[in-house]
Design goal:
The chain has six helices and no strands. By secondary structure, the protein is an all-alpha fold. It has one domain (about 1-95).
Amino acid sequence: MQKRIIDTADQVRSVNDTHYWEKEVAVEAYRGYESKVADMVDYTCRVSSRFMRTCLADERLMTYENLRQNFLEPIDSPAVPVPLNDVMVATFTTGLPRHRSPP
C-alpha cells in the first residue's frame, strides 16, 4: 500500500503542470489559478512521497502520532512548512493521471 502511494504521487507529478490544468482539465473555476493548483499538487505529492519513504525506511515511524506530528499537523517544520491538514488536494488529484498518460 505505501509503495503504491509513492508510485501514484510520482505518476501525478509526471503529468502535473500549468499546461495540464489549463488545457486538459480546463475547469472554469480554476481559470487563472492553474499554476497555483499545479504548485499545490506538486507540494502535496513531494511531501507525501518523502514522508512515506521515511516511514518505509524505518517502520517504527508508521504510527498515528508520527503521522500527525510530522505530516498532518507539524509545527515549525522546515520539511513540511504547510501542514497537510491545511492543503485541500483531494479535489485536484482524484483521477489526475487518468486524464493523460505520463510520457
